Amino acid sequence: MNIAGIFILLTLVSFLVFFVRNSLKYFLSLFILGAGIIITCLWSLPVLLNKDTIEITIDLPFINDSLRLVIDKISAFFILVINITIPVGFLYAKGYLKPYYKTKTPLHFSIHYFSYIWLYLSMILVVMIREGTAFLIAWEMMAISSFLLVIFDAEDRKVLKTGISYLIQMHVGMFFILVAFLILEKGSGKMDFDSLPVYFSQHSNIILFLLFFIGFGIKAGFVPMHTWLPRAHPAAPSHVSGVMSGVMIKMGIYGIVRVLISLQSDFLVIGLIILGISLISALFGVMMAIMQHDLKQLLAFSSIENIGIIGMGLGLGIIGIAKGNHTLSILGLSGGLLHVLNHSLFKSLLFFNAGSVYQATHTRNMEKLGGLMKKMPWTAALFFIGSLALCGLPPFNGFISEYL
Length: 404
Known about the structure:
Order of helices and strands: HHEEHHHHHHHHHHHHHHH
Structural class: mainly alpha
């Protein structure tokens, strides 16, 4: 059996989470995630280090078809980001979920672990699939699995209401992406990302780009498409919040980047649009963050700010291409992508620490959290490091990408 076959086998094995006894559910899920990470690293690391691209064909005999996966350097980079945060989040979940063992049923944990696995698998597929229909299926899998993770405490009606609102907004975004793909198919004859250069060379780039940008921007959390983010992050368990903020919203950035690299014209207008929306997002995120008393809401608004910073880098990079300024284009695009990685590291760290604080104090109100450094010194130290990186202070990783 080849590596692709093993990957398919892992997706099927994930259903066993519902049938093994409660004490084994976590470890089976950890094994599946670990195997998936090893396989995808074997695929992506050679591409990052030397190869231009690789293609993997997975036969799907039950529908008499095959699935073509393509890994270029952009896909490989986002696979790296996913593979760093996902396992750390799941290891953290082992301790975070302990208080729930007495109050939640085995089915609760089965659904939660299964959804975590499928969130991982769907994000991996999103960055590797080029064909439109399969991409939308993976995008839908990501929306549903993350929804199930958010509503872990669905007994709380506020959490359930937040989860439903999140799911609705994800489907609004998916609608815009679907419309964009349908227009692409009508104009180029094919419904896949590889057809974008053909379409853009024959039609206006702005309208199709805007449709994709709105669809992917809702997932990323750009203002004014951000409303789900400061609600869903506090409602979700902290390991889920860390993964959503650290990795999942970056799938929106991936989609935008995938479209940007296919542009053929209108670079200046598109670059200015991205820069303007990103600047508004960054400023709005900062202003809202400093007004929060809820620790996780503060971190959620901070994610909006950092998405704005990433978008500013991308926008400046596209403007650099329009002006023939290679230095600006390289620094802007590389700085934006580097901040994707850096933000995934320090923001997930901050959310995990916020979860530890909540489990110890049962409150997220920062006005009631004074003096914790004495009782939780390691948590305080790690939170301090993450905060310095978030502020972009040298020598921490946030400084490098924000400086670029």
